[in-house]
Automatic annotation (TrEMBL):
InterPro entries: CYP11_CYP27_families, Cyt_P450, Cyt_P450_E_grp-I, Cyt_P450_sf. SUPFAM superfamilies: Cytochrome P450 (SSF48264). The keyword Ubl conjugation does not apply. This is Cytochrome P450. It comes from Molorchus minor. Belongs to the cytochrome P450 family. It holds the Pfam family p450. Keywords: Heme, Iron, Metal-binding, Monooxygenase, Oxidoreductase. Its cofactor is heme. CDD domains: CYP24A1-like (cd11054).
Amino acid sequence: MSSASKISKLSKNVIRTRSSVTAINPQPEAIHLKALDSAKPYSEIPGPKPLPILGNTWRLLPLIGQYDVSDVARLSSLFYKEYGKIVKLSGLIGRPDLLFIYDADEIEKVYRQEGPTPFRPSMPCLVKHGEPWRTFRTKVQKPILQLRTVKKYIEPIEIVTKDFINRMIEMKDEHDEMPKDFDNEIHKWSLECIGRVSLDVRLGCLDPNPTPNSEPQKIIDAAKYALRNIAILELRFPFWRYFPTTIWTKYVKNMDYFIEICMKYIDEAMERLKTKTVVDEKELSLVERILASEPDPKTAYILALDLILVGIDTISMAVCSILYQLATRPEEQEKLYRELKRILPDPDEPLDSKKLDQMVFLKAFVKEVFRVYSTVIGNGRTLQEDMVILGYRVPKGIQVVFPTLVTGSIEEYVSQAEQFIPERWMKRESDRYKIHPFASLPYGHGARMCLGRRFADLEIQVLLAKIFRSYKLEFHTSHLTIKSHLCMHQMEI
């Protein structure tokens, strides 16, 4: 079976009598209808004007197009500068309109009004939403999202991270520099952590003499290709729906391979569970925790595949961005070192949740990197009913995009937005800096918040703590350019 089938108010009235005053509260539904009736039409929302037949799809094509679909962050920033706080990208052949919202108050309103099964914008090349998603989420959210469960994995993640640091020492050249493909080594660390946490297996990503065609490397390459080409498949003309284009063929091939290899490891984890004697709860993988209370193994399969596919590239590129910012900001790196030295007088001292909780500057630095330099543009929703957004009536079915990478840098919502200030996220400094709670949400909000966010945070924190407690990082080559990609979550097999 191919991946194409696998992935598949009335105003307030007051009645006065001689003895009392009684208020008739307006009904929310009536208020909603009145707001819709008085709103400006959807057609008046600003945005690039579609051409007859070609719509706006031509603007995203290579050579003749004016927008680079591989850099969605730059695209969303251009829209905001040219059109303002609400921008409609209509006339996309084969898909609904995209509505970009750059108002943190309106973003909050959309999030607050969504029901128990909010819809993310669907992607025909990888779809999962609605009630099936709600059922899946209910089954897996306890082992994934409970903080006390996540903390049980500090030790195994630290072990993997120590092995990675030893690998870094081996990779250094005579100038103490890392290899040019160091980002790929970060991907290996990320995959090794995910394998250990989700499947209780060491995949061998950190072996001293890996081969270019090793299974872990192929998993990484397949996940990279799939994630980094979704925008091209979804936003450019969907030729792939009518005949097998080159990019679609490669996409399916990579997804097929990714699923095949990952399923092999997942099946092995299932078999081990049948004869495994658990002495310590920390020995349970996430898949095992789910299977202990969920008889349908498909739930565990979906979770493991989702964590691996989304986690490899998203976490790895976030780490690359954070390491680069620390390497080019020596004062902040020194602050981090002093914090770590205070919490970990002995650099070989094992980490635990209490120590991690004290690393307030580390966490603040990561949040500031996500605000300014996130490798994920933001989040989105498919509207389940007509809504009024910034005075316009937006119909059901429109896909709204919240580019928090842009809203997180708007002065109206974040004071001194152009400056990199990690301290703005620290409680003792929070009174000095204004930041709208919905301006920067790299993991989303509410019921559709990223399932793996706690593990992503934990992996990043452990890696930074272990590296910067003992080592200093420098960057001596040309300035890096960061591109942000569309992000997807929850897959269906």
